[in-house]
Amino acid sequence: MSTNLVSVAAGGDRLQTLDGCPFFAIIVNYVGHADRAWRQFDDGQFDPARIEADYRLARAIGANTIRTFVASPLQNEFPKGDWTKLDAVVQAAERAGVFLLLTLADYGAAYLSTMAAHAGLIAARYRGNPTILGYDLRNEPRLYNLVVLHYGQPIPLLAPDLAAIYPPKQSQAAALVWARDAGKIPSWLSDADAINYANVYQLFTSFQEAATAWAGKQNLQQTFADYMRSADARAWQPFLEALDAALAAWLAPQIAAIRAADPGRLLTVGWNDPALAALPANSQLDFMSLHRYPINASRWLTYHVRTAAALREAFGGKPALLTEFGYPNHELSPEQAAIGETAGWLQAFDLGLAGAGKWMLYDLPPGPNPKERSFGLFTAAGQPKPSAWALPALSELFTSGAAADGKLTLAPAGAIAYQFESDRARCASGDGLAGDDLIRWTGAGLCQLFAWWPAPELVRIRATAAGRITLDLGKLRRAADAGEYTLTCDAAPLPHTCDGARLTCDIQPGQTIECRYATEPGLAGVDASLAILWPHANAPVTEAQRGNLTAYLLQGGTRWAVACDFAAEVTLWQAQNNDPARPVATGIRRLAEFAGRRVPVWDFNDVDISAARDGVTKLYFSARVAELACRSNLWAHGNDARTYMPQPFQAELDLPVTADGAPAEVDARIQILWPHGGAAISQAALANISVDLFMHGTALRLAPATFGQPWQPAVWLVRAVDNAVGERVARGAPRIEPNGAAHWDFNDVDVSPARNPASKVHFWIEVDGARTYSNFWTHGLDARTYLPNPEPPLGNCLS
């Protein structure tokens, strides 16, 4: 079994992480820092600290993958056992938290055997290394790269005599002059092969013209891949078969070398020619890669992204990625280029690609060919462009599931403009105005507005230009006034105005505004904080049989106590080890005194905690309030309250559920928490989590039915850091196995607070519309809850 962290999902058209969670590759191409682009490995230019800083920059703006190149002069170093530079690149990616899509042989190699040998050496060096997403055998190989190469045998495409089928349109003398005098081929190629190459090149050019004309007649609704498999291309089949044989001969030794050294590693080729990309020999690859640079028009953007998607269909549903795309700022303003690129990202996601890649991280310094030097997310001086402001929002949309099942609308004519809407996101471009009556940006010039809901009662807003944001909470909640809400930027209160339910504030590019709001007018929910667990007689864990707990109830998001006459029922829930929690006690309200003030608190007395006396069992406690939205903290009690890799709870049967048969109660079981790269607690920054749902009190695992109207629950991951109340941080993405088993996955979950030995992170699950009995998962070096000395509630029942 492959140890790769990223693999092809069971369905075949997507990528997944080791624990089976969906993975959309958000790629940034990198050729070195701006001041040493394409020269990053030269003596005196190699700077691993600079490379790592650039990888971290790419990660900070939303990339999860770096595509970079094994370029000169590395081919003279690693074959001699000098891995200093390439090892440093891989280690930089690992430390920065990004995968590497490593493009091989980005240097002149005249012998296929040399390319294969180098590929095998690299694969052996990084066998099983989870930082490597995969190997790209070569960047943009053209007909020349496949043909004019030492094969150790007759060159495949030049050996067959195609002249009998496709009579040359030029004389042998003219063909030889074209090849020799124009320097098209190296001197070692014989005159006969040079003539054959000139004719094959002309033949290939004619085929491309025919395919382009055919796609035009189809109004760009079909692509090169469709043409090559259509009856209209029948006359080209002998040539295409010979071309495919040449590609197969080119691929075979390289693939064999890598497979022998690192079985299961993902392989691709970074094609920029769709005709070569669609040849059947590419079926040996694990996923398809295409590079496209459309003009600034919606129909051409759609055509080029669809061309990449067509490769997925051509190869039986294999994943397809648009590994290079972008718009040059030499021809377009940075604002318009960013709009086109965002539309490209959204369309790639919408059409089911497994990833997309921006060319590139930095502009190049001024010089020849200004177009090629202007594709960066950042200027050569390191200043962010609007695309760099957009990518963090897009990354969160893709990785959180907020973009799922969305609708993308492109402007039918003129420069690219777009609108995108899903259940949990709204994005739009505009000139002076973007958005709608719910969330709107107004300002000067072109802008993109992003708004998404990472959790209920929370909206995040980002824009690529300075301006003014208007948010109508009334349209979110159907309320006449704003009610209870907080508006923040970088966790600080944000100056704003409030007109009824309409909030207005200023925004700068790069800022993310957060608005937390109450579901109902005048009520922002309740925060329940378990403030103390007091074992009877102050007994240690190994001796205590019963204990008392006290909870503070606060107005949501504040330190203010609930009303003195608050009468809702408060219950204490307890989970043992990895079993789902259950209610074990009902709270008794009393007025507690703090520095002369009296506020209500709730006590749970004589709670059984004896199970933890064995030194192995751990108990987890939380609180709930009847009929109200309630966020609770978690109290962990035991000699060692960390959650180790428990034996996943085994289902007896998978039960398909329709919407009409939605259960009123479910057991939610976190089955695994997998830190990225298998990192230790002291190093892990992100983790993936997988959850199964069961009929309450049974081993019947629930799954959306494949008949009727399927049950599609909103499954939320709740995270609490230390003694803070839990917050919904991600909505689960359902993953259905071929046997019908269903799992809900949460990817890229932040566990970094636990790197501090004094901190811990707790997780549990909430399912909308169902009473949820969840287990708890605690991640930390020491997960026990000590006397936290919480700040007492504000308020005074005597005032």
Annotate the secondary structure layout.
Elements: E1 6-8, E2 15-17, E3 22-23, E4 25-29, H1 48-60, E5 65-71, H2 84-96, E6 99-106, H3 112-125, E7 132-139, H4 143-147, H5 172-181, H6 191-217, H7 224-228, H8 237-261, E8 267-271, H9 274-277, E9 288-291, H10 298-314, E10 320-325, H11 334-350, E11 355-358, H12 386-400, E12 407-410, E13 418-422, E14 425-435, E15 439-455, E16 458-463, E17 467-472, H13 473-477, E18 485-489, E19 492-493, E20 497-499, E21 502-507, E22 512-517, E23 526-535, E24 546-555, E25 570-576, E26 582-586, E27 588-594, E28 597-608, E29 619-625, E30 630-632, E31 635-637, E32 653-657, E33 665-675, E34 686-695, E35 700-704, E36 715-721, E37 727-731, E38 733-736, E39 742-750, E40 760-767, E41 771-774, E42 777-780
Parallel strand pairs: 4-5, 4-11, 5-6, 6-7, 7-8, 8-9, 9-10, 10-11, 23-30, 32-35, 33-41
Antiparallel strand pairs: 1-2, 2-3, 12-13, 13-14, 14-15, 15-16, 15-17, 16-22, 17-21, 18-19, 18-22, 20-21, 23-24, 24-28, 25-26, 25-29, 27-28, 29-31, 33-34, 34-39, 36-37, 36-40, 38-39, 40-42
Helix pairs in contact: 1-2, 3-8, 5-6, 10-11, 11-12
Keywords:
single chain; 799 residues; alpha+beta; TIM Barrel; Immunoglobulin-like; 4 domains; eleven-stranded antiparallel sheet; eight-stranded parallel β-barrel
How would you describe this structure to a colleague?
This protein has 4 domains: 6-152 and 245-400, Glycosidases (TIM Barrel), CATH 3.20.20; 407-517, Chondroitinase Ac, Chain A, domain 3 (Sandwich); 526-637, Immunoglobulin-like; 653-780, Immunoglobulin-like (Sandwich), CATH 2.60.40. The longest helix has 27 residues, at 191-217. Strand 27 and strand 28 form a beta hairpin. Helices cover 21% and strands 33% of the residues. The strands form 8 sheets. Strands 12, 13, 14, 15, 16, 17, 18, 19, 20, 21 and 22 form an 11-stranded antiparallel beta sheet that branches. The termini are far apart. The radius of gyration is 30 Å and the shape is elongated. It is an alpha+beta fold and 799 residues long. Helix 3 packs parallel to helix 8 (237-261).
